[in-house]
Amino acid sequence: MPVYEFLCESCGPFEERRSFESTAEPMPCPKCGDAARRVYSMPATKRMPTGLFKALDRSEKSASEPEVVRRPAGRQSAQGHNHSHGRPWTVGH
Questions:
Q1: For residue 36, is it within any domain?
Q2: Which domain range does residue 29 map to?
Q3: Which of 7, 51, 70, 74 counts the highest number of beta carbons within 10 A?
Q4: Taking CA 16 as the corner, what is the angle to CA 13 and CA 27, rounded to the nearest 5 degrees?
Q5: Does pLDDT of 89 surpass 80?
Q6: What DSSP string runs through 13-82?
Q7: What is the model's pLDDT at position 66?
Q8: What tens digit of pLDDT does each residue of 13-64 get?
Q9: CA-CA distance, 80 to 82, in Å (whole number)?
Q10: What is the pLDDT, as a whole number, of residue 36?
Q11: Is residue 74 part of a domain?
Q12: Contact 2/40 with Cβ under 8 angstroms?
């Protein structure tokens, strides 16, 4: 059974194991017995392999902050042509 987080207005947050069928139902607080609502949070990504974690992080960042990659100015290509103007098809014209 998965572990879910709940928030009691009086006592604060707590975790509880529940079946999938009863996930939406309020849970009684183990301290005071009041009904506590379920809290939705990020999954435990710390247990992921490092490569997968970095790939997901990069993917998430690229949605809102795309990485801009540029060649250093004045750098020559493998053929020896200087493509600093950014249009390799117009070299020599």
A1: yes
A2: 1-65
A3: 7
A4: 75
A5: no
A6: EEEEE--GGGSSS-EE-TTT--EEEEE-----GGGS-HHHHHHHHHHHHHHHSPPP--PPTT-B-TTS-B
A7: 67
A8: 999 888 888 877 888 999 999 999 888 877 665 677 788 878 888 777 777 7
A9: 7
A10: 92
A11: no
A12: no
Establish if 87 belongs to a structural domain: no
Specify the pLDDT at position 34. 92
Domain total in the chain: 1
Is residue 7 classed exposed, middle or buried when 0-12, 13-18 and 19+ CB atoms within 10 A define those classes? Answer: middle
More confident residue, 43 or 78: 43
Looking up tokens 């709940």, which residue turns up?
6
Which residue's structure tokens are 């690229």? 62
Tokens 């309020």 correspond to what residue?
A: 26
**Could you tell me the sign of the dihedral formed by the alpha carbons of 20, 26, 28, 32, in that order?**
positive
Residues 6+ apart with CB under 8 A from 7: 13, 36, 37, 38, 39
- Tell me, yes or no, whether 32 lies in a domain: yes
